[in-house]
Amino acid sequence: MRSADARDRPSRNDSLTAQLSTVIGGPVGDHALIGRVRFWTPMRVLMAFAVVFLALGWFSKAGCIQQTTGSDGGLTLDWNNGRQYVAMCYSDTVPLYGAERLNEGAFPYKKQWTESSPDGGTQTRYMEYPVLSGLYQYVSMRIAKSWDISPLPGALQVVVYFNVVAFGLAMAWLVTVWASALLAGRRVWDAALVACSPLVIVHAFTNFDALATAFAATGLLAWARRKPVLAGLLLGLGGAAKLYPLLLLGPIIVLCLRADPMQRTPRNHLGLRMRDIDSWSTFVAWVRETPYRVEFLSARPLGAATVTASAALATWVAVNLPIAVLYPNGWQEFFRLNTTRHADPDSIYNVISSFTGWPGFDGAIGYAQQPAILNAVSLLAFVAACALIGYIGLTAPQRPRLAQLCFLVIAAFLLTNKVWSPQYSLWLVPIAVLALPHRRILLAWMTVDALVWVPRMFYYLGLDRKGVPEQWFTGTVALRDLAVVALCAVIVRQIYRPDEDLVRRDYVDDPVGGIVDRMSDPLLPWLPEPLRPRVAPPRG
Prior knowledge:
Elements: H1 10-13, H2 15-20, H3 42-62, E1 67-69, E2 75-77, H4 83-86, H5 93-99, E3 113-116, E4 122-125, H6 131-148, H7 157-183, H8 192-195, H9 198-203, H10 209-224, H11 228-241, H12 249-258, H13 280-288, H14 290-298, H15 301-326, H16 328-340, H17 348-356, H18 372-395, H19 402-416, H20 428-435, H21 439-451, H22 453-461, H23 470-496
Antiparallel strand pairs: 1-2, 3-4
Helix pairs in contact: 3-7, 5-7, 6-7, 6-11, 7-10, 7-20, 10-11, 11-15, 12-15, 12-18, 12-19, 14-15, 15-16, 17-23, 18-19, 19-20, 19-23, 21-23, 22-23
């Protein structure tokens, strides 16, 4: 809003920001006119912050795209003596260019190759990423190859490829910051932590996860703007890049279950029912009424959630179906690898094994063997966590905010999953800022999470090259997990004590809530007694 009398003023109500503001003259004055600046609006300032931190992120990876002369006299990447770990510049995008056979100009999911496995055998491999991420790599490769034959200044093809990928990921993160700022409502400056997060410097270009965060953030923005079909479309696209945006459908459904279904009663445009169609003309009339039918359904909370979930599923299927039909083996590779993959070094299961010597749920198994018990335990643990989050959402004295439940679901997925790749922490950044706008707490967690990268790189370097022992790395992972658990505990406390929630001050309900924002919050007599909302005790 250009004129924003109700806009949050962090330089006056947040001690950390007040101290930082002394660099530019101190906190805003009591009689300052807020929302009157013509050019340096909050959104443009946030974009400038994001560009600076993305530039720092690129420079943090620049050491891994430096060129040197190889033994044959040709140019090659300077990854000698573990440079990618010593300089802490490692990015998956660089080795994947050759590992996924993109350097051959091959189309992902169609190209197959045979490689040796650590157990001495061989296996047939395909592109290992979800469809949208794989196609993004393919398009970036085609641009890099076109650059290579153009008269423009050249470099190694993999270097050009990395820069093309980084440019697209930077645009995706700028979209994430833009959507987060709009979702923050009157607390627009909370999005500064999305733009200036230490995790952006470390992981913005580590992998392709910024694509998914952009779709997830814009999907929530569409939901907040009460556009359930568009929200489902964007979340479905995000699920085709990384699966986590589809997890956000769960909190949406829970909050719509809790909302009053009789709060809004729109006009009934449903003149025809499916069973009334007995001719071509009535079928045409039924099709013409479809937009009104969707409007009628989406005007009610549970109907809107159904429309969003259906649109997300349809979009995900529409993106995946052509690849699944044409190249079924390549399409299944992502799911096959996630099934046969053992506990990731960053997972809680590996942390326990590192400190206790525990052999894991499945004991000593081969590289290609499926850890069936670990898969079942991680799945059941996540389902149990989701059930608990659903219970919290239904029984809290006041309906929780959507961002709060979204953060709990994503954090539960990461904590219980057998894989927590370091760049996955980017998933939490925009949701955490919307769910818990406490700058000191968030900055402390982001810093701890970003610093996990240091012992991780030196652990991969190896003790024979003056790396660090495994426990130095897994110890920092344990600290990171404890920090995320602490954030979850604070959010749950604020759900049950909404008067402590900074977002809900000044008569604000839920800026991300969309159709459930400012709706009545009934006791839900149709639910069993244990699942009904608790009546908040009177205060004062």
